[in-house]
Each structure stands twice: as C-alpha cells, then as structure tokens.
Amino acid sequence: MKIAMQVFPMRCRSARDEERARRQQDQFDEGMAFRKQQADALENYRAKQFEIQQDTQQKLAVNQQKRMISTSLRSW
Fold this sequence. Notes:
With about 80 residues, the protein is an all-alpha fold. It contains 1 helix and no strands.
C-alpha cells in the first residue's frame, strides 16, 4: 500500500509538470507570434517609408527640372 501511495503523487506531479510545460510552451508560442507580428509591422513601415522617400525625391527632381526650365525661359 505504501508503494502505491508513493507512485500516485508522482503521477499527479508528472501531470502537473506536463500541464505547466504545455502552458509555458503556449506562452512562448504566443510571445514568438507577437514578436513576428511586430517584426512584420516594422518591416512594412520601413518599406512604406522607403517608398515615400523615393516618391518625394522623384517629385523634388521633377520640380527642380521645372524650375530650371522656367528660369531658362525667362532669360530668353
């Protein structure tokens, strides 16, 4: 009888350990999913900023060309 009582708590402890390990894994997975989501959001933000920068530089170049043309036509 004494042996059976010693085995039973081990099973309970093992089940508790398994549940704890499962919860920890779930928390880890959630944390990693959140980090991936944040990394994706940052990557998208940086890509959009780069796109905006390129567009702005292109518009500035066009405006500069227009000013140069306008200035050269006035000197005629």
